Amino acid sequence: MPTGGMFANYSPGAKIFSSPAAPPLALPSRAAASWEQHAASACLPLPSHTSTIQHFTTHFTMSYTTLPRRSFIKSLLAAGAFPFVASSVPALFGAPAKKAKAPGQKVRVACIGIGNQGAGDVGQFDRSGLAEIVALCDTELKDPQGSKRIQGVLRKHPKAARFSDFRELFDKAGKTFDAVLIATPDFSHFPAAILAMSQGKHVYVEKPVAHTFDQVELLLAAEKKYKVVTQMGNQGHSGANYFQFREWAGAGIIKNITRINAHMNSSRRWHWSIKPRWRNLDGFLPKKEIPAWLDWNAWLATATEHDFNPGYLAGEWRSWFDFGNGAIGDWGAHIFDTAHEFLNLGLPTEVVPLKLEGANPFVFPQASTLQFKFAARGKDQPALDLFWFDGQKNIPPLPSGGGAIEVDASIPTSGGGSNKKDTKAPSPGKEIYSADGLVFQGGSHASTLKILDKEKAAALKLPPVPKSPSDHYSNFLLSVLGKEKPRSPFSVSGPLCQMMALGIIAQRVGKVGEKISFDAKTKRITNNKVADELLTHKAPRTGWEQFYTL
After folding, report:
1. Integer Cα distance of 523 and 532 in angstroms
2. Gap between the Cα atoms of 167 and 162, Å rounded
3. Model confidence over 467-491: pLDDT tens digits?
């Protein structure tokens, strides 16, 4: 990016813009009362219900108008998702997606987050033969040598430019890459993705695409505005299960589905069996000294201020409501993603928490059962209930004759993959029940379905299932090159993530047996003000507000 561009006044730890900071975001008194009452008993942090629309001129001056959150989102979408038009600001902000490269050329990729899952993703991009890794960005690269856990990627790409703050990556190396891989903690997916899209970069983002419902909504709008290639990292969505479910649903084999049980019963980081001391957790972790290799300010990104503690790093962030999306955000996108797409589920009308065991205002429950209610969607698609089960002993009712659930061999175990030693629990998977009497059972990721009644299965004329022409990473890169279409773009994966975000709200503030009603047209929770507030992200830290205006 040329000097004098978007980040001309940027330095790590400083604001991106030299313009005055936005005024503090205030909570309307009525909403504040509901949160104060709830927080008094549950120790929950107060979220913000307002936002600031920042209008950029060609001279980068700003004016501010404070609106209620719901009005803010509505006004953004009505205006084409953003409070300005591309023609009124430097091309940097409204840059069109880059045209496909000539045959034989590789996609130049910048990788944001290169530890754990990110390291695996970088390796997959390498193996595709379609990518050239030109830049590496990780908050554990404040020291040029980086932390121990990212050394493998650094050694593999010694010539790639290195950064610890993704803002600096775009400022100093923005002209050197066409696409970005984003494999940071859940809460920091949004700012990196929205910045990349605003600059015409194609984006591959690990699941979930964002941390909150409204962040996903903004990414959906940005996908339409900037017309870049997007892909969420639910890798099985390019595997055998994707093509089988698509063909079986299209041929009328999978139809009249009324119930789905989805389950993930392996141990998780926040379970007391792993962390007994968390049984009486009553706050965030105590302050520790920040390691020399860690850029803590960049790690926090748009999140609210938190003292550093190593207990938030290396995947531990997934335990915390402030940073992660729990078991459902981690595994839901791998288990019921194909059902969500090919049964046209969209967004539920209700979410009912049926079990919330060991609920805590800071970390996810020890076990939860959630019921998502979906309305009828047309011929052969009646009203459907999807039940989510997590927790080590929260086993769903399993159909007779099911047997062992197929486990996709490609499922990663680093950074929180399935615990294969947990033999007492069924493998992560789902059971799909049809009103016609058919029961389908399948695992996670690319694991295929089986029909449990062999006689009924034998009587069906099953359509041929094509083999996948490309894995998930190659599909993204080939889409950038104009040769394929992405299989999990935000238009597909975004509503899936919003559905899961509603489930997380139920885990966080719901009460067992009490429904949370959702209006899919207005995209608001209509019967629970506390839950409705959580559709919206918390006010970002000073200096990070601008990502909600791109």
Report:
1. 10
2. 12
3. 999 999 999 999 999 999 999 999 9
